[in-house]
Design goal:
This protein is mainly beta. It has a single domain, classed as TolB, C-terminal domain (Neuraminidase), CATH 2.120.10.30. It has 3 helices and 33 strands. Strands 2, 28, 29, 30, 31 and 32 form a 6-stranded antiparallel beta sheet that branches. The longest helix has 18 residues. The radius of gyration is 21 Å and the shape is globular.
């Protein structure tokens, strides 16, 4: 056992012991209402549909999130650490074939469920995988940041193995890789929860092999949830949410805190460059969970669109706690040392998405969903026309909260908004969810189709459309 593994086990043991001593509290909004976990895995093949499912949509919409199997002390639970559960709807030739939900087969989840250990190598002692699910190299992968390896899922969402895609590497990955449509490469900025002095740029080839890594020196162990890519660069977010040893030793289940002493900066790393080639830009203290698209400027700089929080994890120990959220365009001008910030919208929102066929290129449409961290009211889908400077909203209803909305193109070629926005939408009154398809060219119109699900999909994190043509035979 290496020194790093010994340190990880020591931190894990100490954190667990301190967590057991925390005063009991039953109060935690992230275990209640739309966030409450479901207790069963379900397979439903008789699904009622309102409207007409697009015959062009042949594939799987899979989305993941935390769904703790058991919680000893709700007051000490943090939303980001619950056992992962994936939810999927399978469409084929205008029909909804099935809905399934399955726990991700990590060691800790399978131990609680009385299931055997999955094959594959492991990285770190914290093994929750609950943040994103993607298709790559013909397979389906569930993933998380800060340490654990991705988990491969089969076509029915059952966990198959732990692996670093098709590589033999054993290292941390990211919750938010970005695929370059021109090369098929997957790009990510990764960090290890117990490594404080560097983060890493990682490139995975279209064959699933590890193609490139670059270690980037940092201080304090920052939480890097996302990145962005242009045609020539990787946008690196080094922001003031960092690992807190004090929080870990006090038993915090999620040991990251707002750190005003950590200078906020944004880096541009040439894709084939070394860490020394990064050009850093200062930015006022803030935090970014998620980026939309990014693209190169003719002067060698870049533009990146981001959802910005004024701070994060400054007070709450249970989940996100920012007071102000803005959707912004950040311009990185090589003639300046700071980020030029333009507010697109000051409406509280999150989960920015776009048509990924135009990733790394100038684009027109961005999509977000409403996100009021202080309440559980209805939330809309928002479409921004970045060329015209306008926006339009899809209102799902007076009791509906939508999760992240994912763009699905009608075909590989076509106009940027020629397709659909798909998401799981929760009904506060009925305590049940639907899979809703909205025409991207008619955002304000009625949904094109609604697949009525047998129960609730808890509010969670990220998902993607995985087309049949992108799966291995």
């Amino acid at each position: 056992m290496t020194a790093t593994e010994l340190a990880e086990r020591a931190v894990a043991w100490t954190t667990l012991q301190m967590r057991k001593r925390a005063p009991y509290s039953a109060e935690n909004k992230f275990l209640q209402g739309p966030y409450a976990p479901v207790s069963d895995e379900v397979t439903e093949t008789e699904l009622r549909v309102t409207g007409n499912l697009p015959v062009e949509m042949n594939g799987l919409f899979a989305r993941i999130g935390p769904n703790p199997i058991e919680v000893a002390n709700p007051g000490a639970y943090h939303w980001f650490i619950g056992d992962g559960m994936v939810h999927g709807v399978r469409l084929r030739e205008g029909k909804a074939l099935w809905y399934r939900n399955r726990w991700i087969g990590t060691n800790s989840a399978n131990a609680k469920l009385g299931r055997p250990v999955l094959p594959g190598k492991r990285h770190g002692v914290f093994d929750t995988v609950n943040t994103n699910v993607i298709g790559h190299a013909g397979r389906i992968w569930a993933m998380v940041e800060a340490g654990p390896m991705p988990v491969e899922l089969d076509d029915c969402l059952e966990s198959v193995r732990h692996a670093y895609f098709e590589s033999d590497a054993v290292r941390s990955f990211s919750a938010h890789p970005h695929r370059d449509p021109s090369t098929g490469d997957l790009h990510a900025v990764c960090y290890d929860g117990l490594v404080q002095n560097h983060i890493s740029y990682v490139r995975i080839g279209p064959d699933g092999r590890l193609a490139r890594t670059v270690d980037i020196p940092v201080k304090h162990g920052p939480s890097v949830h996302d990145c962005a890519i242009t045609a020539s660069k990787v946008v690196v977010l080094d922001l003031p949410v960092t690992f807190s040893g004090r929080a870990a030793m006090s038993g915090a289940s999620f040991p990251y805190r707002w750190n005003p002493s950590h200078a906020a900066r944004i880096g541009l790393l040439p894709r084939d460059g070394a860490a020394a080639d990064i050009r850093w830009f200062d930015v006022d203290p803030c935090y970014v969970f998620h980026t939309a698209n990014a693209y190169d400027r003719p002067d060698g700089g870049a533009v990146v669109d981001v959802v910005v929080h004024d701070s994060m994890f400054d007070e709450s120990t249970q989940g996100p706690d920012s007071k102000k959220i803005t959707f912004e365009r950040w311009t990185l001008d090589p003639a300046r040392s700071d980020v030029q910030r333009t507010v697109i919208s000051d409406r509280h929102q999150e989960f920015p998405r776009f048509d990924e066929r135009v990733a790394t290129q100038p684009y027109r449409f961005a999509y977000t969903v409403g996100a009021d961290l202080g309440g559980d009211g209805p939330e809309p889908l928002i479409c921004y026309d970045l060329e015209k400077g306008t926006s339009v909203v899809h209102d799902y209803g007076p009791n509906q909260i939508t999760g992240e909305a994912v763009f699905v193109p009608r075909a590989n070629a076509g106009a940027e908004n020629d397709g659909w926005l798909v998401s799981y939408v929760y009904d506060l009154r009925e305590d049940r969810s639907d899979f809703v398809i909205v025409n991207a060219a008619d955002i304000a119109g009625e949904p094109e189709a609604i697949v009525h699900l047998p129960g609730r999909v808890p509010l969670g994190f990220h998902g993607n459309w995985i087309a049949d043509e992108d799966r291995r035979g």
